[in-house]
């Protein structure tokens, strides 16, 4: 009786011989079976055709300019394209939020809240309020009342460097 975990040497040799002969039979696949060989042959033929058409002084690979139909030229008509590109995004809605202040509460404090409770915020009275667009700080302003409705008067536009400083707080 033979152990399947320890095959005899004769069976192992036969299997290796069969695998090697099978591999040798596939050593020269045709171009139909090997797409890489076909692609390499096609590339070599294209390079030979370029070499025949190219002038003798230009022995390096010739760079082909992109056509104007793919890329628009940078000079001249750039000023006309900017307003048109901005028009594409003008109707995209954004969420504007005015932040009065923030605070942190424990769950216990949250559950103790009732009608009439006062929550102390970190913001000070008279301090400018943060104006956020889609959650990003873009300006600060002060609260105004216009026709019995609240509004915000922008007092300062935040520069990119100031935005980074605010994030680090």
TrEMBL record:
- Name this protein carries in UniProt: Flagellar motor switch protein FliN
Gene field: fliN
Q: Where is the Flagellar motor switch protein FliN-like C-terminal domain?
A: 88-158
Low complexity compositional bias: what residue ranges?
Answer: 56-68
Q: Where is this region: Disordered?
A: 1-78
Gene3D superfamilies under this entry?
Answer: SpoA-like
The positions making up the signal sequence are none
Xref: Pfam families: FliMN_C
* Compartments reported by the entry: Cell membrane; Bacterial flagellum basal body
Instruction: Keywords in alphabetical order, please.
Output: Bacterial flagellum, Cell membrane, Cell projection, Chemotaxis, Cilium, Flagellar rotation, Flagellum, Membrane
Where is it chiefly localized? Answer: membrane
Q: How does it sit in the membrane?
A: Peripheral membrane protein
**What's the stated role of this polypeptide?**
FliN is one of three proteins (FliG, FliN, FliM) that form the rotor-mounted switch complex (C ring), located at the base of the basal body. This complex interacts with the CheY and CheZ chemotaxis proteins, in addition to contacting components of the motor that determine the direction of flagellar rotation.
* Coiled-coil positions: none
Q: Which InterPro entries match?
A: FliN, FliN-like_C, FliN/MopA/SpaO, FliN_T3SS_HrcQb, SpoA-like_sf
Q: State where composition is biased (Acidic residues).
A: 23-35, 45-55
Give the protein family. Belongs to the FliN/MopA/SpaO family.
Task: State the organism of origin.
Answer: Halomonas halophila
């Amino acid at each position: 009786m033979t152990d399947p975990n320890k095959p005899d040497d004769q069976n192992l040799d036969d299997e290796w011989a069969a695998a090697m002969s099978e591999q040798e039979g596939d050593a020269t696949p045709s171009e139909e079976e090997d797409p890489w060989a076909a692609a390499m042959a096609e590339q070599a033929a294209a390079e030979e055709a370029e070499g025949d058409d190219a002038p003798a002084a230009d022995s390096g690979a010739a760079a082909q300019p992109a056509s104007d139909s793919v890329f628009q030229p940078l000079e001249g008509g750039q000023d006309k394209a900017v307003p048109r590109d901005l028009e594409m995004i003008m109707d995209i809605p954004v969420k504007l939020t005015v932040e009065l202040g923030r605070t942190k509460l424990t769950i216990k404090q949250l559950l103790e809240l009732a009608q009439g409770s006062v929550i102390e915020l970190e913001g000070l009275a008279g301090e400018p309020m943060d104006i956020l667009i889609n959650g990003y700080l873009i300006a600060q302003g002060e609260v105004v009342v216009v026709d019995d409705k609240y509004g915000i008067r922008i007092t300062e536009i935040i520069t990119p460097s100031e935005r980074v400083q605010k994030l680090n707080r």
